[in-house]
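Quick start: load a record and inspect it. Here is Slc25a-29:
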Amino acid sequence: MLGSEMTHLVAGGIGGTVAALITSPLEVVKVRLQASAARVANFDQNSEQNKITSTKYNYFYKLFQKNRKQSFGVIKNIKLIVATEGKLGLFRGVVPTLVGVIPSRSIYFWAYNYAQSYFNEIFVPYSNAVFFCSAALSSGLSSTVTNPIWFIKTRLQLDFGAGKKKLKVWKIVKDTYQTKGIRGFFRGVTASYAGISETGIHFMIYESLKIHFINKFHNTNISKDISSSNNNHISKLQNYTDMFGCMGASMISKTISTTLAYPHEVARTRLREEGTKYRGFFQTIHLVYREEGILGLYRGLTTHYLRQVPNTCIIIGVYEGTVLLFDRWGLVDPKTDD
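Running the structure step on this input writes:
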């Protein structure tokens, strides 16, 4: 029988693994769109957007037009990758992704549930402050522990070689250690910390919407301690259809949080490029804005939506469903602290 903490740890790892496999092609395209290299497939820049002269709305119009094009550019980039690198190119970096996803999501959901017990003593129990702080703390912990894996994954996804010219994991590790030392594997971690706010906002909104949807489904009036991360450490979902309510809540909350905090994703990718001129998070944000304008800070946003929102929905759905499944099968001992 699994203990309460182990249940969330295992469920988080399963959810992350399933989502990573399904959305890997979109992740590869997203990373390449975020990168500064000019080899990614782009549309002709001589478009109608350049005819807009209004300084008041110019940036916002360009941002809309650029992201609208990128939604079509996803298919174009996928076709290009298949043509030049084969179908396996769509899964470039999937091995380190899977290696990183299991500990990352496991650590996150374990810490998220554990942290709530602590923050419930400081703030109003199961309030927005509790969910925000718990999510932020858990995000920072998992990002720090798994950053070397994500560093290697990003380098693999930015490699355009084919056949024997493909970049190998051992070479990345060797070259990075020889030139930068241990610190080299933590490039981009400061940008990950900037993304802590995104995770906090996401789960704060998610927990509120989750309760709203489940109350609607069952015509009840239950409070925020319905969270599967409450002190009982077992699922409070009433049936498997509640998973879809959780996925819907996750879709809305992730879209909002991603829009607010997206520039940190671009900064993190730039910091992990080989031979980069980017040195720190704020320096990268400033340099990208100076050289590329606000559009540069939102490069690949639509692709990020197409990948990250479904990815998060799958993670949450599988996670909540796994906790419910373990609970229904009698595999969880809520009195056990691991």
